[in-house]
Amino acid sequence: MEHRKYNRKAYHAADPADVAVSQAIFNDMWELFVQIGKFWGKTEVVEDLRTDLLVFMNNRIAMDPSYLYDYKNASEVIKELIYEMGEEKGYESLFTDKSILDDPPTTLKARARQKVSNEFIVLYLSLGGFKDYGAENSLGYIGGANIKGKTPYRTIDK
């Protein structure tokens, strides 16, 4: 039996080659990821997380190709914010501006925050961001059962 192309499982009609993240966009998204950690007080940048971020982005795009355009939009929005306010204030505006919490997002800045920045914050936390807030041996959200008396993580004794 001949394998027919039309029998492949399809999540969307886009050709994977048409929805690949460029190196420039990935670099901008990596910088956003780094800035998330800096904004919340993480001083060390873990270079090993680059691969996790790329896999996360590619998985999002594979499920919904519009994410590629969201990443491009976020890159452009961030560049404009940095141009207008400087790097620190530009990222702070993206992370904290309450005027862009409309649902669904109605501006490009709101879309960048909700579809990219907020999702990267969740990813950051799930990849060990909790460690920065006192938990040792944290596995992110998947740390074990929440059984009374058997906390799935250890806190720092003070």
Residue share in helix: 40-55%
What share of the residues does DSSP label as strand, in percent?
A: under 5%
Radius of gyration: 19 Å
User: Structural class given helices, strands, pairing?
Assistant: mainly alpha
Morphology call: globular
**How many strands, which pairing sense, and closed or not: the largest β-sheet?**
2 strands, antiparallel
Count of DSSP-assigned helices: 5
| Count of all domains | 1
Order of helices and strands: HHHHHEE
Strand order within the widest sheet?
1-2
User: Separation of termini?
Assistant: 68 Å
Provide mean pLDDT, rounded.
80
Low-confidence stretches: none
Q: Based on DSSP secondary structure assignment, what is the total number of beta strands?
A: 2
Which features does this protein show?
158 residues, mainly alpha, two-stranded antiparallel ribbon, 5 helices
What does this structure look like?
The chain has 158 residues and is an all-alpha fold. The chain has one domain (5-127). The protein is 51% helix and 3% strand. It is built from five helices and two strands, in the order αααααββ. It has helices at 23-39, 49-63, 66-85, 87-96, 108-126, and strands at 135-136, 154-155. It has a two-stranded antiparallel sheet. The protein is globular.
